[in-house]
Design brief:
Rossmann fold, 7-stranded mixed β-sheet, 3-stranded parallel β-sheet, 10 strands
């Protein structure tokens, strides 16, 4: 069964961004950097720019060679008129992308993919700056987008429950995630396990189990993990990945695919109770959310609400 379109689910966050931008001292300015001539990638970059412009922010999109990215990031880091930097990955498709991601100063890292923000997530440190509870930490955009989609669909427990409460939003839930990248899959496993879920995380090196944000070795099979899962999330950008099949999931499960390649078979997507085939619009909304939080924290000087 197909769930409501992610674009529709993201609209509330776009409307909130319009209100928040109106309260800024100036128009927050984002610099988008893309080192690709791929038509779908360029289309996504232009669509992202338009959404930022629609809510009242400035968004400069620059297309450049991948070898010029390093210098341009460093230049933007020191430019006080730039409040956020958005690099469209992958660039090299290897560890050099991690190097570029960590070049972005944490005060302008709207995707929250640099080690500064990732370390805070893994440590469950909820403050942007130590000792200042008025400034909340940022969370990586795509993992946060998936969580917010589940909140909008009312399958993420009670969103009013505060962190640290005895009853957590995903208490008693089992989640299986196919992707353990440091950018999306692993942060998502940490976030969902922090919220009470037992998370099985798969990649080409096998499964890990996350409980209370702590990973442990396990030998659970894919079939057993899927059979017991309330939520199944896939993000494998490879046509060689064996599709999630209908006989592997239950009809009560929620299915989410965030890969550019569909990881669920049509039969599996039809069988699960809700299926979300893409998360892009919500990811853009979370990038806006992070941009405004960075602006309030580091570029405007007023406390976060």
């Amino acid at each position: 069964m197909t769930a409501p379109d992610p674009q529709t689910l993201a609209e509330r966050y776009f409307h909130e961004a319009v209100t928040d931008v109106a309260q800024c001292h100036e128009r927050p300015r984002v610099l988008g950097l893309i080192a690709s001539t791929d038509k779908p990638s360029m289309a996504y970059a232009r669509a992202t720019k338009q959404r930022f412009l629609d809510v009242g922010m400035d968004y400069d999109l620059e297309q450049l060679s991948r070898l010029d990215l390093e210098a341009r990031i460093l230049e933007a880091n020191s430019d006080p008129s730039v409040h956020g930097i958005f690099v469209y990955f992958p660039v090299f498709g290897n560890q050099q992308d991690d190097y570029l991601r960590n070049l972005i100063t944490f005060t302008k890292d709207i995707e929250a993919g640099s080690q500064y923000w990732v370390r805070k997530l893994y440590a469950n440190d909820r403050f942007a700056i130590a000792g200042d509870p008025s400034k909340k930490a940022l969370l990586p955009c795509t993992p946060l987008a998936i969580v917010k989609l589940l909140v909008e669909l009312r399958v993420y427990g009670d969103p009013s429950i505060k962190p640290g409460a005895l009853s957590k939003p995903l208490s008693g839930k089992q989640v299986t995630i196919f992707n353990r990248s440091e950018v999306i899959g692993r942060p998502l496993a940490v976030m969902m396990s922090n919220d009470g879920a037992e998370v099985f995380s798969f990649d080409e090196h096998g499964p890990l189990k996350f409980v209370d944000a702590k990973p442990s070795e396990c030998n659970i099979t894919r079939r057993k993990a899927l059979a017991g899962s309330d939520i199944v999330i896939t993000g494998v950008p490879s046509a060689g990945f064996a599709h999630i099949e209908a006989d592997e999931v239950t009809s009560k499960a929620i299915g989410i695919n965030f890969s550019s390649i569909q990881n669920f078979s049509d039969a599996a997507a039809e069988k699960v109770s809700l299926f979300i085939p893409r998360v892009g619009p919500m990811t853009v909304a979370m990038c806006m959310r992070n941009t405004l939080r960075l602006y309030r924290h580091f570029h405007m000087g007023t406390p976060d609400d």
